[in-house]
Amino acid sequence: MSLADDFLADIDYEDVESITSSAQDSGAQQQDLYTSFGGASSSNHNVGGGDLMDEDEDDEDGDLDMEADMNEADSALEAMMREVQSAKNARDIARLMDSAEMKGILKDIAHFQSQSASKGSNVSGMVEDDPEYQLIVKANTITVAIDNEILVVHKFIRDHYEPKFPELETLVANPMDYARTVKRIANQEDITKVDLHDILPSATVMVVVVTGTTTEGRELTEFEWKACDEACDLAFELEKVKATIIEYVESRLTFIAPNLSAIIGTTTAAKLMGQAGGLTALSKMPACNVQVLGKDKALNSALSSASQVKNVGYIYYSPFVLSLPSDIRKKAQKMIAAKIALAARIDRVHSFPDGSWGRKIREEIEKKVEKFLEPPPQKNIKALPAPLEAPKKRRGGRRARKEKELYAVSEMQKLKNRMEFGVEEQEVMGYGESQGLGMLGQNSSGPGAGRIRAAQQNNRNRGKISNRNAARLAQYGSSSGLATAGTASSIAFTPVQGIELIDPTAAAAKVKAANEKYFGSGGFFKAPEKK
């Protein structure tokens, strides 16, 4: 984006018409060209600070106006292209360079450049009333026309150089690079003898040379090459004038807004002032609106919005912010926008005309950015706490021995924790995990390997119970079914009959018969007779 687009908001449509008045006198077609490129751009950039809050309300009207402007621009562009094709000389269609308006602006620029650099300190009142500021606005406005002139000249060169090298316009897309390449190749037949490395990248040079050796183009006539040569010189002249204007604007902006330029740079400062509508309008904006100035230009680029950052503008895309890591750019943008809002108010009342306040703020911003970039503080490694030097318990006796026995490691656990050198330990699987058995079951072999003996009950570790409670427990246990094992079965496997069903009453009947035999109720106990 050129600086001309940034300052178009500072002027009205009457100023645009005055800039292009000389071109309008030269021909109606040139006026259509400026309207299609510059006029539509001016109307789209004439935005004030308050419009940022109400932009959603005028979306529908804006779409209709944009569609009408695009239709008008397309029709004007088609008419311009027809005139370019029929023209015999580039200056017949590109008349801006010889216009009185261009010569007057260049003369005024040379006049103000010759003045003392301390002129900015003599500015009083509104900045917009200063004649040099008005010249800056006009100079930026005419750069739009210069860009359009370069496009027209580029079209003229392509149409007239196409018989010589028709593939060149697809290989070199930049208008100025195309003009330099045409100027260097000229009307030579052997393109391999032309050195283009100082104009184009090496990869492009190779493609151009290879394509030029196989092209079906013909040699231009003397009249055709003279027209192309003059058009290339005109393009170089327009580029030089544009560079002079931009250099002047950037140098003089330090006198119009010294503190603002010291904080963000002259290029971005010019864009912000142009988008806001001047320094006075920028000074009335809050910081939240300043940081999104130029948002529409950044987002409406006809590209995918997947990788675009939302709610950013000229400040975010300034060289200083883009040089920072992406994770702190939004934070830096918000911080810089707040300082820019203050700097615009200071420049509005002409305080600190030497820009000392702006340079001081810039240093503060850089220090804060360095603070943002510092790594987080390293966590301190805490030393282990000192062990408690409490006296050890040296109590002996039966109670102390029993407490130790409760938490003592059993022999089975000791064997499990041991491994014999050179002998593979057995493992058991359970719940998706394996557990090594160590030396448990090492002495056994065969199918019983790995089995362990059930732990023997240590009566010393058993809890004590009184005799009274033991009697009650036995009484409760006998009256319940707890005495019978849950795995007891009435089926017996015998080698004689196989599966045999046991009569549960047989044992009781056998006991009863024995009692009746010896302790029957028939009389006194009698010993059985000997046979």
UniProtKB/TrEMBL annotation:
Residues 21-32 have a biased composition (Low complexity). Residues 392-401 have a biased composition (Basic residues). Keywords: mRNA processing, mRNA splicing, Nucleus, Ribonucleoprotein, RNA-binding, Spliceosome. It is found in: Nucleus. One of its GO terms (molecular function) is RNA binding. GO terms for cellular component: precatalytic spliceosome; U4 snRNP; U4/U6 x U5 tri-snRNP complex. Belongs to the PRP31 family. PANTHER family: PRE-MRNA SPLICING FACTOR PRP31, U4_U6 SMALL NUCLEAR RIBONUCLEOPROTEIN PRP31. This is U4/U6 small nuclear ribonucleoprotein Prp31. It comes from Linnemannia schmuckeri. The gene is PRPF31.
